[in-house]
Amino acid sequence: MPEKLSEKLPGKWSETLPLLYSFRRCPYAMRARLALSYSGVRVTLREVLLADKPEEMLAISAKGTVPVLQLADGTVIDESYDVLRWALQKNDPDGWLPADLATLDALVERTDHDFKQALDGYKYPEWHTEKTGAEYRAAGEVFLQELEDSLQDSAYLHGAAPGAADIAVMPFIRQFVAVDRDWFDSSPYPRLRRWLDDWLATPLFTSIMEKYPQWRRGDAGNAFPPA
Predict the structure, then answer these.
(1) Which CATH architecture has domain 7-94+206-224?
(2) Which of 16, 26, 138, 165 is deepest in the core (most CB within 10 A)?
(3) By mean pLDDT, which of 13-27, 50-64, 179-193 is the weakest?
(4) Pairing, β 43-47 against β 7-8
């Protein structure tokens, strides 16, 4: 993973709080919101629709994906893992961010590339016709099995306590499982199933899934995480 987390762009966000563009159901945006909520770092959240991206977001991040975080000095962070690291470097009350990031970097790389490609093909086989949906699911299962194995001796991905690895990966497993929950419930991944269901029931996760109206120009946005 590159060490450079952000770049300075012209213009400053005029409010005290950093500004976050997010989309509720996007797993990358969920990763960012989980980190911000856990850390308690407050932002102004603007909920967007990816089919109706506001010009203000595109002006600071032309790639048009969420999350996009703009700091008060104009710095823009538009990769979810970079938002996670930024938030936990600001405040990490339970020590979720490891001192040595190599293992976490590798896990996120695996999640965001190989697994995400399988996830997209499994969820949208009509758009990804190189393989069948079943073949994409089988490709994703390679990663599921790796996670199942990592949970053999611990309740969390990187040890006995929750950590950044869990919130970095969980939104993507949630999306994969949602394609066919019945299949997952009968699949040979009992530890992963328990891990996912436990995370979905946490107040942290339920709080970041609160619904916000689509942001429109002139709207104030919403303080996040809520007080």
Answers:
(1) 3-Layer(aba) Sandwich (3.40)
(2) 165
(3) 13-27
(4) unpaired
State the greatest distance between any 2 C-alpha atoms of the chain, in Å, as a whole number.
52
The pair of structure tokens assigned to 60 is 């600071």
Q: What angle do CA 119, 127, 140 make, to 5 degrees?
A: 20
pTM of the model: 0.93
Distances in whole angstroms, Cα of residue 40 to Cα of each of 81, 82, 86, 177: 17, 16, 12, 28
Class (C level, CATH) for 102-204: mainly alpha
Phi-psi region of 103 (alpha: psi -120 to 50; beta: other; left: phi over 0): alpha
Q: What is the pLDDT of residues 38-64, one digit of tens each?
A: 999 999 999 999 999 999 999 999 999
Query: Can you count the helices (H) and strands (E) in the chain?
Result: 10, 6
Q: Residue 98 to residues 102, 138, 139: CA-CA distances in angstroms? A: 9, 31, 29
